[in-house]
Fold each of these.
Amino acid sequence: MLKGIAPRLSALFARPRDVSAVEAQMRRDWDDRARENALYYIVTDAADSEEQFAASGDQSVRDIIKDVEPPVPSQATVLEIGCGIGRMLRPLAARFGTVHGVDVSAEMIERAKARLGDLGNVHVWLTDGSSLKPIRSGSVDLVISYLVFQHIPDAAVVETNIREAFRVLKPGGVFKFQVAGRPDTEEAASVERARAKDTWCGVNYSDAEIRQTVERAGFRVRKTFSHAPADSCIFLWVVAERRR
């Protein structure tokens, strides 16, 4: 969450020259953040202790899956995009048969492996930040992502992740994810176009923009909704389905 003290940032991306440069910057910045204070940069308002951090992961999982209909079966395969050190992977593993987590940061992935080594049904993978190449096509029942896309400075990278989520989902599978939202006005759109973007304050979407992006990837949008936590960005949620 974007709360409290502003983090130390690396180079800004007002207009990224190419996706590979964005991916490389994402990797460097998140490796640095993992080394500095992984808990804080993953969830800033639940980083005072391991117990608080773990409890926040369990709460987030409950909040994310509670309105997915029909309920995801216990034997399902679930994928988290942007898993960090595994805040939500452990509670996911307690609920589902097979759990995958991917992240752009090698430092985060190594820490996740160490933290989750006792769990036989969890698999974590290092990716380039755009593709989900380690995950087989049509093999996942539910894909989730939370507090991740709001940090991506290029809409092309976000869209590639969405297209990849479509690829790995089974027909009928669900993708529930969150982006940073903004009002659907020309004034807000103008501010967004002019705003410098980096790997902490990434791209923002109007409801119409994220719906169009998701539908371009092949999904049917079930619903969108938003809320605005105190001292944070607008959290815009999307629940989308890969048609059967």
Amino acid sequence: MLAAFGQPATLGAASLFSALALLPVNIISLLWVRRLVHRDGTTLREMIGFDRTRIGRDIAWGLLWIVVLWLPFIAAIVGTMFAIFGTGLFAGFETALAPPEAEIPAITPLLASVLGIVAFVTFAPLNAPTEELVYRGYSQPPLVARWGAAFGVTVPAIAFGLQHIFFAATPAGMLVYGVAFFVWGLGSGIIYLRQRRLMPLIVAHFVVNLATSIPALLLPLALG
């Protein structure tokens, strides 16, 4: 979208506009899965497994899952970068993920601040539960039941990886994101298959999304 309007895809700009573009997608997806879940005779709360008495444990599990998922995620990024750039993979990070030739988009600091706050406030709280409900909570169990665990975990992970290629600023970055988020989705799917609880994964997803949406808040500083 940025390229179509002649705007550079800087790290801050890509984070800002991707988060904003996902806002209607998250809302529509959440309402859609809620309708499907209600049709099946359950609720989102039941599917998530929210329980006030387990909040502390869910947060602890979520923080653990960040560490568990982060290791193969980073390995997937480094491995894919090595496959593309060979021994020059570390120099290639800037080229693939944050092109140095990109410039700051032509928007005012005030507008960037408003959009950044909207993106930061809405992205993590909506995106984390929505994606976990769509990919793990709703999609995975029937696939596992019908086609087996390997198929049921892998297919949503592939879709999860494909979705995240649109966060990348270059074709090489798209490949890196696709592989890395497929690995993350695969790990999350295995965790959900074994633990059978969505809330800890939502906690992990929320914390990661909160961190990755910070560049949207920093964009006004670059513009100023």
